[in-house]
Amino acid sequence: MPQHVTVINYDPKWPSEYAKEKECITRILKDNCLSVYHIGSTSVPGLAAKPIIDIMAVVRSLADVDAVAAEFSAIGYEYMGEFGIKGRRYLRKGGDDRTQQIHIFEADDWNNIIRHLAFCDYMRNHEKERNQYAKIKKELAQKFPYDIDGYCNGKEKFVRRMEERALAQYDATWDKLYIFARKVQNKRVISPFIEAGSVSSAILSAKGNIYTGVCIDAACSLGMCAERNAIANMITNGESKIVKVVAVMSDGKVVMPCGACRELMIQLDKAAGETEILCDYETKRSVRLKSLIPQWWN
pTM (2 decimals)? Predict the structure, then answer.
């Protein structure tokens, strides 16, 4: 039976449905999973949509995703391979009346990752275009109730135009820093006395380069925080000015730099107080370093 195209008003339950599915996805992908995002129209409050939860996962390796295809099948997903987009893994659940779709990309596939994030961000912040998109989708659903290709083709021109606007405005810096940090993060045992990698960090230099580092925990207490490791990497490569910094725990949550890291950063440059530190990746909330070291001793 052809897929029934239905567009309904925004349902406040969609975020919780996404959250439940995210848990299943991260459990299957394990350490291969760097980040998971709620994308598509159901991720935009107030936007009418087909009641299908679209999810994007960013991974280290698509080959490792292929290796766990059977585990996705066990929870009801069809594993469709690239399905028309090179470098993607596409999975769907619910058959013709699908309820979830997963789009998986490797971390270096910035074009696909950022276009999804930018489009959703644009729709969340532009009410006029959001309402226009809802109107287009509802009209197309009535016109093509059992023709998904007709429905998709009908909105293609509008979506591409909005995507161009979104990409022109979207700042992907925090996304890149977060994913760069996650890429180098994996806990490893160096020796009976040293472990590393449970916390990672990425910094953006004044020249636009990204440097990463992981924590080093030593029994002798002479280890190093991830932020200081990233700073050492930056200095080794001839730079010393930081614009933005993010540090990430093993569970994917952002963590604030410790006092020692803050002190090192503030000493790097007379303008170092303006360095932005990410507080929360989901909301992109950040603070300036100077607010974390008020009345600095110098």
Answer: 0.94
